[in-house]
Write a structure and sequence with these properties.
Layout lengths: L1 H9 L5 H8 L3 H8 L7 H14 L5 H8 L4 E6 L10 H16 L3 E6 L3 H11 L7 E4 L7 H8 L3 E4 L15 E4 L1 H14 L5 E5 L7 H12 L8 E3 L4 H14 L5 E4 L2 H13 L9 E6 L2 H4 L7 E5 L1 H14 L6 E4 L1 E4 L5
Helix pairs in contact: 2-3, 2-4, 6-14, 7-8, 9-10, 11-12
Length: about 350
């Protein structure tokens, strides 16, 4: 057994020329088959693939990259709010979806952070240096120059969330994947209305990232077009932000009987404030969140009724669009649904 193993270890690795010779075709034909080019007959493709399997030929990835101009790497560019990337299960699910899609395509994710102003130039240099085949980008503020840089560098790019319009010459209709934020918000508020609630407040997200916060507020107003401004409070998608926003709403409108909170993180903070103020949930105030991050929604007291969006699937779709090289205006909207628990 030891002798056999030694012989196999020292055996010469099959080459492109070996495959061509045994298949009875030219070296260039084998190269075209390996690289998936179309200018080869079906019979030749079948024969070459048979010989590849028979010899155990493995393409030289470095040489193949030079021919196909593919590196096998994709940049995942993230601008985490206040450094919360690894504390937020939303981003964890999104990254998991991206990584799984890339793994299925034999590609590697390269994670790049944009947290400080100096990071923009560094990331742009990396993206333009031929190190990656494309980039998926999410949680980018509209003023971040990476929006324009991806256009100027002319690399394939897909955005998570619909980017806000901003100054500059870059196009605003980039390929992106997003949840049905407006439709999901309508589901949440209509549910609260169906429960007989009449003084329904909302805690919105920040308006300095993608359009999700604005879309969720628009869905709230679709159902309650006459809601006074005093029932609307802005926060930052954090737990503490939700707690502070809920306190501000109660100070202004102690008679409110429901609240739609634009993220589960913020909703967990809002629930804490309501309990501290002596409000029973849902008897006094019904609460609905958004995202259905089960690690949060199932552990709140009481468990959180919320709007579900498939965040992991959104990550997969972002990576898939990148590989499909679709038109830059392509957008994919992932549907949402209401998940009822005990908070409303």
């Amino acid at each position: 057994m030891e002798t056999v193993l030694t012989q196999r270890t020292n055996a010469r690795r099959p080459t492109l020329e070996d495959v061509a010779r045994q298949a009875g075709v030219s070296r260039s034909t084998v190269s075209r088959v390996v690289n998936g080019e179309a200018r080869v007959s079906a019979e030749a493709v079948e024969r070459v693939r048979e010989v590849i399997a028979e010899l155990g030929y493995v393409p030289n990835q470095a040489a193949r990259g030079l021919v196909t101009h593919r590196t096998g790497a994709v940049a995942v560019v993230a601008a985490p709010p206040e450094g919360r990337l690894f504390l937020d299960p939303f981003f964890d699910l999104l990254l998991r979806g991206v990584r799984r899609e890339l793994a299925g395509r034999d590609a590697q994710a390269v994670l790049l952070f944009v947290e400080e102003p100096d990071d923009h130039a560094r990331v742009a240099d990396y993206l333009g240096g031929g190190h990656v085949d494309g980039a998926v980008l999410f949680s980018l503020r509209p003023e971040a120059p990476l929006h324009e840089m991806t256009d100027r560098l002319d690399i394939p790019a897909v955005f998570g969330g619909r980017p806000l319009p901003h100054t500059g010459a870059a196009r605003h209709d980039r390929a992106h994947v997003d949840g049905d934020n407006r439709g999901g918000a309508r589901l949440a508020v209509r549910h609260l209305v169906s429960l007989g609630r009449r003084r329904i407040a909302t805690v919105t997200g920040p308006y300095d990232q993608e359009n999700s916060a604005a879309d969720r507020l628009a869905g709230y107003r679709d159902v309650l077009p006459d809601a006074p401004q005093e029932l609307i409070e802005r926060a930052d998608y954090s737990r503490q932000g939700g707690a502070d926003a809920m306190a501000a709403l109660l100070d202004r409108r102690p008679d409110l009987d429901a609240v739609f909170v634009a993220s589960d993180f913020m909703a967990s903070g809002a629930l804490q404030t309501l309990r501290e103020r002596g409000r029973r949930i849902p008897e006094d105030v019904a609460v609905v969140g958004f995202d259905d991050l089960t690690s949060i929604a199932e552990s709140t007291d009481p468990p959180l009724t919320t709007v579900h969006q498939d965040v992991e699937e959104m990550g997969r779709l972002m990576a898939r669009l990148l590989f499909e090289r679709t038109d830059h205006r392509t957008s994919v909207i992932v549907p949402t649904r209401l998940v009822r628990r005990r908070s409303a």
